[in-house]
Amino acid sequence: MLRLMLLHVSQIHFVLLISRQGKVRLTKWYSPYSQKERTKAYYMLDELLIAGELQESSKKTVARLIAAQDSLVEAAKEQASSISNMIAQAAK
User: Fold this and answer.
1) CA distance 46 to 42
2) What are phi and psi of 46, to 5 degrees?
3) Which of 18, 46, 41 is closest to 31 using CA atoms?
4) Which residues form the signal peptide (predicted)?
5) Which of 7, 14, 59, 74 is the least buried, fewest Cβ under 10 Å from its Cβ?
6) Taking Cα atoms as reference points, which of 25, 24, 30, 28 lies closest to residue 15?
C-alpha cells in the first residue's frame, strides 16, 4: 500500500523594506511575479502599513479620544437604565 504525502512548505516570496516616509528602499523577489502582481503587493502593503492603520499617534490625541469614548459609553448606559426603568414601571 502506497501513501501519498503532500508537504506544504511555507517560504518567503519577497522582501520589501519601506522607509518611514513610505518610499521603497529595497526589494528582493524570491519567486517569479509579473509586474501586475508586484504592483498589487505594493498596493496591499501601502494600504495596510502606510495608510494610517499602523502609524504612530500622539499620546494626547489617543487619551482624548479614549475619554470621549468612555463618556459616550457612560451616557449610553444611563440611557439604557432609564429605558429599563420606564419599561419596568409600565409593566406594573
Assistant:
1) 6
2) -60, -45
3) 41
4) 1-17
5) 7
6) 28
